[in-house]
Amino acid sequence: MYEQITDEIIGGRRLTREDDVSFLLHGDLEELKPCADRIRRELCGNRVDLCTIINGRSGGCSENCKFCAQSAHHAAETKQYSFLDIPEIVEECRKNEKNGAHKFSIVTAGRSLSPHDFAQAVQAYRTMHEECQEISLCASHGFLTEEQLRELRNSGVTMYHENIETSRRFFPFICTTHTYEEKVACIQAAQRAGLAVCSGGILGMGETWEDRLDMAFSLAELHIDSIPLNALMPIPGTPLEHRELLTEEEILRCVVLFRFINPTADVRLAAGRSLMRENGREAFFSGANATITGDMLTTSGNNTAQDRKMLAGDGFDISRTSEGA
Q1: What is the pLDDT at residue 321?
Q2: CB-based contacts of 214: which residues, under 8 Å, 6+ apart?
Q3: What is the DSSP letter of 264?
Q4: Are 248 and 276 in contact (CB under 8 A)?
Q5: Which residues contact 172 (CB under 8 A, 6 or more apart)?
Q6: Which residues lie closer than 8 Å to 37 by C-beta, 6 or more apart?
Q7: Alpha carbons 53 and 87: distance in angstroms, whole number
Q8: Residue closest to 51 by CA, chosen among 229, 304, 306, 309
Q9: Cα dist from 4 to 9, 13, 17, 252, 258, whole Å
Q10: Is residue 12 over pLDDT 70?
Q11: Alpha carbon 257 to chain centroid distance?
């Protein structure tokens, strides 16, 4: 039933806000999943990208994002520490490189980085770029300036992460200490600095399906390279602690939706894989072609060795060809 539009997307058509995309919300999911999988195979190949992260500075965040355990505005219990020592970060990168990950990112809590912490981050990236040449470096440090983003690029970073989190409409219901527009401006600054961009959001925070569509279209319009999709894992002490968990069917429909609207991007599973059978195995046959692996920031992820075994066993390419510098 959906073969024609699938063929058109593979042939170069891109869905826009002017198109009737109600089939993504109400169509038969069992028919949509193989179509999304074919778009993934034809336009992205059979490779699955594995990204790992380290929580480089934890807790005490000035921002009031309702989903986050690290916000100083909430009562969630979380570790709090200043920027990690460079050797500790480099060793973690080295370990993930050895374990077969493709990307490694330092993620820090907070609106941005102080001059001291930024200098620490730059030195860490330079050292990792020199010593861990088989793994690509990403960064996630909030609202940096374009000049700072260029310095990160010159230090070996190839991708910058800045989630838009949700739709423009719903964003003020989730955070009021910064704006959706500030996030978009940071993404565009990273792109001008020559960095690829990783940007997605969190599903299940109370947004509507129309909000999810809006987020998918916004990411397409921003030409985002990697789209992490997090299913909310409600954390005690945060304002969203009592939100109902998404079902596997809802998560898979989101994967399909984002693949149809962003056909050439990496659609990356992030938090919430435990809500699906076999840690989201079916999602990789429904349009997903990337995942965050290992531990998340404040929720547990899937082990890298487990992911590599599962994906290789299903015939996916998890080699590191073209990764690194």
Answers
A1: 62
A2: 167, 168, 169
A3: T
A4: yes
A5: 179, 180
A6: 285, 286, 287
A7: 15
A8: 304
A9: 9, 11, 19, 21, 18
A10: yes
A11: 16
Sign of CA dihedral 147, 148, 149, 152: positive
Residue-wise pLDDT tens digits, 103-118: 999 999 889 999 999 9
Evaluated on CA atoms 225, 214, 61, 92, the torsion sign reads negative
- Are 203 and 229 in contact by the 8 Å Cβ rule? The answer is yes
φ/ψ of residue 230, rounded to 5: -100, 130
Paired tokens of 138: 């990403």
Tokens encoding 127: 């050292």
Q: How many CA atoms lie within 13 A of 236 on its CB side?
A: 2
Residue 29 sits at the vertex; the CA angle it makes with 219 and 221, to the nearest 5 degrees, is 10
> Read out DSSP for 165-227?
BS-TTTHHHH-SSS-HHHHHHHHHHHHHTT-EEE--EEE-SS--HHHHHHHHHHHHHTT-SEE
Amino acid at 110: G
208-257 per-position pLDDT tens digit: 999 999 999 999 999 999 999 999 999 999 999 999 999 999 999 999 99
Extract the tokens encoding 104: 């490694």
pLDDT-based confidence at residue 138 (cuts at 50, 70, 90): very high
With residue 51 as reference, give the H or E element that holds it: strand 49-57
Tokens linked to 210: 């129309």
Strand partners, 55: 107
pLDDT of 126 reads: 98
Return the closest-CA partner of residue 55 out of 88, 12, 15.
88
Q: Cβ(109)–Cβ(70) under 8 Å? A: yes
pTM above 0.90, yes or no: yes
